[in-house]
Amino acid sequence: MVEILRKGPLPAPLDVPQEVREAAAAASSITLREPRPPGFPLLFTAKMELIEPAVEYLHEHAIRRAHTVDTCNTYKEVLYDWFDALEQSGILWTMADAVDLIAYRNRMLREKSAHTGRPYGIRTINHRVRGVLRFYEWMIRNGWLRSSELVGRHHDFALANTARTPRHLKGRRDSDLFTLRQFDTLPQPLTSAQLRELLAQLPSPYDLMARWQLYTGLRVGELLTLTVNGVTEHADSGRSRRRASHQTIDIMRKGRKRGYVIAPDTLLQETQGYLSLHRAAWVARAVRLRGAADPSALFVNSRGRSVKKNSYQQVIADTGQSCGFRATTHLLRSTFACMMLARLERLVQQGAAINPLLIVKILMAHERIDTTDRYLRAIAVDHVVLTDVLNSLLEEA
Fold first, then answer.
1. For the chain, which end, N or C, has fewer CB atoms within 10 Å of the first or last residue's CB respectively?
2. What CATH number matches the domain at 1-8+42-152, 1.10.150, 3.40.50, 2.40.160, 3.30.160?
3. pTM for this prediction
4. According to the 3-state scheme, what is the secondary structure of 275-288?
C-alpha cells in the first residue's frame, strides 16, 4: 500500500551518533534554492521506494507555484489514491493506459469512500480522473515519460479504430471521454426555521462562525483567515466616526486574491461580545495551562487553539443531523446568496436600476457569472409550491 511520510527537520549534530555528526553539521550549512518545508508529503510504495514524479509534481505546485495548502492537499489526495490503486492492481505507473483509468473510475462507482463511508459523488470521481490526466500531461512536459496513452490521442480503446467518430463525440476533449456525465444541482438553501434551530443548537464559537457565513457569504477557508485586529480595527474606525449599519472588512479571498466583505453592525457587535467573553476566557486559560495561545486568530476553541476547518465542518454537520435536516458550511454560504438575490430582485421590481446577479457575483467572489446563476435559478423555483403540487397529484393517483 502506498504510504505518505512527512518530511521532518534536519537533526542537530548533537542528536545523531558521533560517526555522522560531521555530515549532519555539513547538511545544516547547505543552502537550498527551493527547500521543502517540514511536513511536506513524500509518497512511497509498499517497498518504501520514493515515487519521484509524484513528489516533484507536489513540489512544483507547493513551492514553485506557491499554491495554497488546500490546493496542494487536493493534488496529494488525487495522486495517493491513483498510485495506491495502481499498486493494488500490480500496474506500473509508466505502463498505465486508458483501460486502467476507466477501471479506476468504475471502481469508484462501485465502492464507497474509505474516508467518509459514503458512495463517491460524480463530481468527486470526475475531479480525480481529471487530476490523473493533468498529472500525466505534466510528466510528459517535464520528461518523466516520453508518451502515454492517457495524453494526446483519441481514446478508442482499440474497439473501433476504423469507425468514424460519432457526431455526438466530435469536438470533445480526450478528458471528456473519461469523465462521467455531470449535471449541476440547484442549491437548496436552509429555511428560516431551520436556521433558527441550527444557530440555537450550535455551541460557541461555531454559532458565531455560522452567522458570519450566513451574513457575508464567506467560504470556510476565508472565514478562518479572519484575525482579531482585522475585524476590530474596522469596527473601531466606524464607531469613531458614527454608528453605521455595516462595515467593510478586508479579507484574503480564495486563491490569495485581495477582497472584502460587508459585515452588518449587529454581527460586529456579536463578535465584540464573543471577544470580550468566551475568547478572552479561553485564551487566558490556555496561557495559564500551556503558556501559549493563538494571539491573532479570530475564532478559537475552548482550549485556546485556532479552530480547524474539519472541526467546524463536522460540528455543523452533526448539529444539523441532530436537528433533523442536512446542514453544511457550504449550505450557509448558499443560503446567503439565495436570500441576497431574492431581496435584490424585489428591489428591481420596485424600480431600482441594479444588476442583482452581478452584485451577488462580487459579494460571493465568483470567477464566472455561471456559478452565480445557479442561485438565481434556485430562487426561481418555489420548493413549497412544487411539493404541494406533487402531493396533490399523488393523492389523485
1. C
2. 1.10.150
3. 0.74
4. HHHHHHHHHHHHHH
